[in-house]
Design brief:
The chain is built from nine helices and five strands, in the order αααααααββαβαββ. The chain is an alpha+beta fold. The two termini are about 15 Å apart.
Length: about 250
């Protein structure tokens, strides 16, 4: 189904790139960038090959610079990307919330938010790269990084009258519950970016695509609130590794 917007106003790292066998180092050993061969260190790799050769985790490691006493920067970036998603982590605009959600120092969260804001500002000036979302399949493809997340994420995709994505924000992490998610959390970003419509997307780590009673309840609640304020809830899409499902109310 193609969308039609009704109203159109003008630690020890055990996996991934940084995986290493640390058995000999002991349980309390904090793996650091110095433990990597020179050619695998993010900064050296950037200088030698350019930023395009680096993964999001490597770029994030450069942004964060160093970790904490209990968690090296490599372990931190691995965990942040695993728990929040590669694109989600840079879409967040609330440093305090990001710090609390990911249990990282506030200064680290501020660095991530600042980089995300720079990217958004550049993106706003370069409309050629604007995503256009017209169907649930478009949503599924756009939020591909949510499919493998271990926790439920509720994400808001905010559109203009031409179905162009103008803002993308993680609204909550954890069980999607109508008693916890308030419509104002969904529509506040819409008002800030002058969106005319919003699409909600959230993942089911279990892989089950059947909407829960809470999924349906929160969709109905937000749709009604959107009618009152004049911002349409176009769809609520559930995603998993198995596929996607659209919640219709």
């Amino acid at each position: 189904m193609t969308y039609v917007i009704k109203n159109r106003p003008s630690i020890i790292v055990n996996s991934g790139l940084f995986a290493r066998d640390n058995a000999q180092a002991g349980k309390n050993y904090v793996f650091t960038i110095r433990d990597l061969p020179n050619e695998d260190r993010p900064r050296e790799k950037l200088l030698a090959l350019g930023p395009g050769a680096l993964t999001p985790k490597e770029l994030l490691a450069i942004v964060l610079e160093k970790g904490t006493r209990k968690e090296g920067v490599l372990a931190m970036t691995e965990r942040v990307v695993r728990e929040y998603g590669e694109s989600n982590v840079f879409s967040n605009t609330d440093a305090k919330k990001l710090s609390e959600d990911l249990k990282i120092p506030l200064t680290k969260a501020m660095q991530i938010v600042a980089v995300g804001e720079l990217g958004r500002r550049f993106f706003e000036r370069s409309r050629n790269g604007t995503a256009v979302i017209r169907t649930a399949k478009d949503v599924f493809e756009y939020v591909a990084d949510m499919r493998g997340l271990s926790k439920e994420h509720l994400r808001g995709l905010y559109l203009n009258a031409h179905y162009q994505l103008i803002h993308d924000e993680v609204i909550s992490i954890g069980t999607v519950d109508a008693n916890v998610i308030h419509p104002r959390e969904v529509f506040r970003p819409a008002l800030s970016c002058s969106a005319v419509a919003v699409i909600l997307a959230h993942n089911h780590p279990s892989g089950v695509l059947m909407p829960s009673p809470d999924d349906v309840r929160i969709t109905t609640q937000i749709k009604k609130a959107g009618i009152i304020i004049g911002i349409e809830l176009v769809d609520h899409v559930i995603v998993s590794k198995e596929g996607f499902a659209s919640i219709t109310t």
